[in-house]
Amino acid sequence: xxxxxxxxxxxxxxxxxxxxxxxxxxxxxxxxxxxxxxxxxxxxxxxxxxxxxxxxxxxxxxxxxxxxxxxxxxxxxxxxxxxxxxxxxxxxxxxxxxxxxxxxxxxxxxxxxxxxxxxxxx
Length: 122
Known about the structure:
- It contains 3 helices and 7 strands, in the order ββββββαβαα.
- By secondary structure, the protein is an alpha+beta fold.
- The chain has one domain.
- The chain is globular and about 40 Å long.
């Protein structure tokens, strides 16, 4: 990897390919913002620009309301619950198939990489 380049990560448009993360790109600006809601984690930007979050306590994927004034993300409506036995990586792929991903957080990337079903397809 050349100096100044970030780590390779799954491209949101095609989870099987990789591209280099540009931390200065607008799509990644929420990665470091705090998320209200205890254990809730930021996943990325899906579909029409909506922030997606994961709450491991309730096992729910929710839309996040971006609070630009305070540089934070506030959990909003529940998008869906993970099915019994469904991994977070599988849920991320499902959202990518239905809504598309504009960006993925490092947390989401780690869960895609850790999905054992995904390894079977590579």
